[in-house]
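Sequence, please.
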């Protein structure tokens, strides 16, 4: 079962859970599954059109994914990490 790692800034909807076992077969399915269990999670990660938000990055087993890799397949052993980029000036 893939594992979704959630950064601290996105853990309010997950009630503090940092690592969530998911059954999704793609990045998008994992996000939607977590949204089903923890309403409010998806809006932190995806925009209203269902695309990856600008300051959100995904890593698969430690390797950065290209933007808009939401339909990338995952295997049972994968760890999908969500990172929140910091911006400021």
């Amino acid at each position: 079962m893939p594992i979704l790692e959630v950064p601290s800034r996105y853990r309010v909807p997950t009630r503090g859970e940092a690592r969530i076992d998911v059954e999704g077969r793609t990045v998008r399915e994992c996000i939607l599954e977590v949204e089903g269990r923890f309403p409010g999670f998806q809006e932190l990660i995806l925009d209203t059109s269902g695309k990856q938000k600008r300051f959100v990055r995904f890593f698969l087993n430690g390797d950065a994914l290209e933007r808009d890799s939401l339909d990338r397949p995952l295997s049972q052993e994968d760890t999908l990490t969500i990172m929140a980029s910091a911006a400021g000036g």
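The CA atoms of residues 12 and 68 lie 24 Å apart.
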